[in-house]
BPL1 ligase (Campylorhamphus procurvoides), 243 residues
Amino acid sequence: LGRLMFELPEEMGLIAVAGRQTQGKGRGGNVWLSPVGCALSTLHITIPLHSNLGQRIPFIQHLVSLAVVEAVRSIPGYEDIDLRVKWPNDIYYSDLMKLGGVLVNSTLIETTFHILIGFGFNVNNSNPTICINDLIRRLNREEGTELQPLSADCLIARTVTVLERLIDVFQEKGPNGVLPRYYKYWVHSGKQVRLGSEDGPTAWIVGIDDYGYLQVHEEGKGVESVHPDGNSFDMLRNLIVPK
């Protein structure tokens, strides 16, 4: 796609869908193996540099994460499936288990960003952790509902459609047009972290700033932004740590 995206007419969309992947790329050079039963896709989009989103490109990974969650939770009857977003680029079951992730690569050519969005999430594999259809079956048992399992193809299509609408809203209204929806599904509200190390100062997560970076409040120092390219949020140790 990295070569094709520069050769196609501007109005033509481009997406690759894989049944399985053996050399998927993650953040920090991680390699991902994904079996059949996952929703795996790379999408090409263009964003004008001189636009709301073009001036805040880091927000794209948040919009994609939100689109994945809303692809499920916007289906009538599926609103209580506990899929959530974890800053900066993960899809979670509650705040317990990772179900998927997003990776964004952008190239600026003149005044247009060419962006490749890779996203993958577990739809139908119960091992080694949990999948979306497990969550549906669990809700059916607990609530007596009869929700049908979802397919990877359906959820890829829904994710792309929801993302398209989110981008339109962001271009029209900026961050405030989408952040209320993002906060509705994220796992970090009111969470306490330590900065730098396990013995570092305590801070509280506040939200996301106008450029998509995490905001934390350290007592006596006010609100500071933490950049995802230089930090990772470690849910297991409850830290924001420099990489």
In short: Residues 191-242 form one domain. The CA atoms of residues 12 and 84 lie 31 Å apart.
